Amino acid sequence: MPRRSYKFKIGVLALQGAFREHIEMLQSLGVETVEVRLPHHLDGLDGIIIPGGESTSIGRIGERYGLLEPLREWALQGKAMWGTCAGMILMAKDVGMDQPILGVMDITVLRNAFGRQKDSFEVDLKIPALDAVSTRREKGKPFHAIFIRAPVISSVGPGVEILATLDDGTIVAAQQGNMLATAFHPELTNDTRFHRYFLEVVRRTR
Ligand code: GLN
């Protein structure tokens, strides 16, 4: 792994779901982390991750704690934000359901898109964008993607770049400016490339 020091402070929304795994991965990269539970926890952060979990719970708790509006502002100001799975649902403009969301990214998502038979599965994805942060050994290596009751991106707006699709063309990762969204869970693997990719997005915003 490249020895990079990231002098960033990254917040992980810590209301519900898989936030610890993101924090551990960031810390393994030498990043200072903050568990975000209240609006003032956003002060001084360089980037924010919205983890997987249950998007309805995260949305409701976030609403109660007054976090949704500051998070919306955050994204609209062009600061770096990455949502994984439920986090991606929260970022989407359209989720086809009535639930509290941020609605900041020009994507439409379909929740629990794989249904019961394929509740959870793992698949190797080709993600060329990761080459930008890859070591020589990592270059071109597929990314092992873990999907857990995952949503998919059913459509993207004009300013959105598709980062990864399944073999059948289903969109599972996208980027719009400094916003990243993944339907799968990089924090549950040992592969830090996606986190490093996000940290490069963060670097660009500073
Ligand atoms: N199914 C969850 C939802 O709709 C997302 C699952 C996940 O984050 N692993 O919110």
Strand content range = 25-35%
Q: Care to count the β-strands? A: 12
- Mean pLDDT across the residues is 96
| Structural Rg | 16 Å
Distance separating the two termini: 24 Å
H/E element sequence = EHEEHHEHEEEEEEEEH
Please give a structural write-up.
With 206 residues, the chain is α/β, with parallel strands linked by helices. The chain has one domain: Rossmann fold. It has five helices and twelve strands. It has helices at residues 19-28, 55-64, 68-76, 86-91, 193-205, and strands at residues 9-13, 32-36, 47-50, 80-84, 92-94, 105-110, 120-125, 143-148, 152-156, 161-165, 171-176, 179-182. It has a seven-stranded mixed sheet with strand order 2-1-3-4-12-11-10. β11 and β12 (179-182) form a beta hairpin. The longest helix has 13 residues, at 193-205. The chain is globular and about 40 Å long. It starts with 8 loop residues before the first strand and ends with a helix. The mean pLDDT is 96. It binds glutamine.
